[in-house]
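Annotated sample (chain length 137).
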Amino acid sequence: MANTFHLAIPAGDLGETKRFYCDILGCEEGNQEEGRWVDINFWGNELTLHQSEERLTQVRHDVDMGNVSVPHFGAHLPEEDFQKLKQRIQESNFDYLDEPYRRFVGTEFEQETFFITDPNGNVLEMKTMVNPARLFA
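Output written by the structure step:
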């Protein structure tokens, strides 16, 4: 479990948000306290969803391809897993916040990315890198 990231977020309706992460995104649930919180295996990272009343608000920040919602979190996926995730989202008739697009085309940082929101308004950016070894090199 070396280098595993942990993030805890407000989930709103815990059951609804857990179904989003498990049924639509394909994540697995783990340890939990019924009605209070549940751990989600978020591509090898621990995402803890907390039952909550509050809903996050977003702002948009300008970047090279327009503007993006902040705060957001997500995962870097291998190309095959990324394409399978896009297919699951499309088959579920779930709406993208920002449609899939390619950034930094033709460079060592080329990537495909998209943004979605969970049922409580938490924003996720999912991406695949053409050259993942260059991320921090």
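Annotation: Residues 79-91 form the longest helix (13 residues).
Annotation: The two ends are 22 Å apart (CA to CA).
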